[in-house]
Design goal:
The protein has helices at about 1-55, 60-120, 130-175. It is an all-alpha fold. It has one domain (about 1-175).
C-alpha cells in the first residue's frame, strides 16, 4: 500500500507545481498587459492635447485637412503598434503556458511509467498481457498528446503568419488610400 502512495504523492506534487507555474505565467502576463494598457492610455491623453493644439493652430481648411490626415496616420500607426505588442504578449504567454504544460506532462508521464513498472514487477504471474495493454495505452496517449502539441504549434504559427499578413495588408491599404 505504501508503494502506491508514493506515485500518487508524486503525481499530486507535480500537479500542484504545474498549477503554480500556470498561475505565475498568468500573473506575470496580466501585469505586462495592464502596464501596456496604462502606458497606451497615458500616451493617448498626451497626444490628444497635442492634436487639439495642432488643429487650433491651423490657419485655413487646407491646413486643417493636412493636420487631420497626419493625425489619422499617426493614430493608425500607434494602434497597429499597440495591437502588435498585445499580440506579442499573448503569443509569449501561450509559449510559456505550453512550456509549463509540456514539462508537467513529461513529469506526469514519467511518474506514471515508473509506477506502472513497479506494479508490473510486483504483479502476480500471468498478468503480462494486462501490463502490455497498459503500456500500449500509455504509449498511444503519449503519441496523441505529442500530435496535439505539434498541431497546436502549427496553428499558432499559422495564426501568427495570418496576423502579420492582415496587418501588412491594412497598412498598405491605408497608405495607398487617396487623401481627402
Amino acid at each position: 500500500m505504501a508503494k502506491m502512495q508514493q506515485p500518487l504523492a508524486d503525481f499530486n506534487r507535480n500537479a500542484i507545481e504545474a498549477m503554480l507555474g500556470f498561475a505565475q505565467v498568468s500573473m506575470e502576463n496580466a501585469e505586462k498587459l495592464m502596464r501596456l494598457q496604462l502606458d497606451a492610455a497615458k500616451r493617448f491623453m498626451s497626444e490628444q492635447g497635442e492634436s487639439v493644439r495642432a488643429l487650433a493652430e491651423a490657419k485655413d481648411t487646407a491646413a486643417m485637412m493636412s493636420v487631420r490626415s497626419r493625425l489619422t496616420e499617426q493614430t493608425l500607426d500607434r494602434a497597429q503598434g499597440y495591437w502588435r505588442e498585445v499580440y506579442q504578449l499573448v503569443t509569449s504567454a501561450q509559449q510559456q503556458m505550453n512550456k509549463v504544460f509540456e514539462q508537467s506532462f513529461g513529469d506526469y508521464q514519467q511518474d506514471v511509467s515508473s509506477a506502472l513498472e513497479k506494479m508490473v514487477k510486483a504483479a502476480p504471474g500471468g498478468s503480462d498481457a494486462t501490463a502490455a495493454a497498459i503500456r500500449s495505452t500509455m504509449e498511444a496517449t503519449r503519441a496523441a498528446i505529442d500530435n496535439m502539441t505539434k498541431a497546436a504549434r502549427q496553428a499558432a504559427e499559422l495564426a501568427d503568419a495570418n496576423a502579420k499578413a492582415v496587418t501588412e495588408a491594412a497598412t498598405h491599404a491605408f497608405r495607398g488610400a487617396p487623401k481627402k
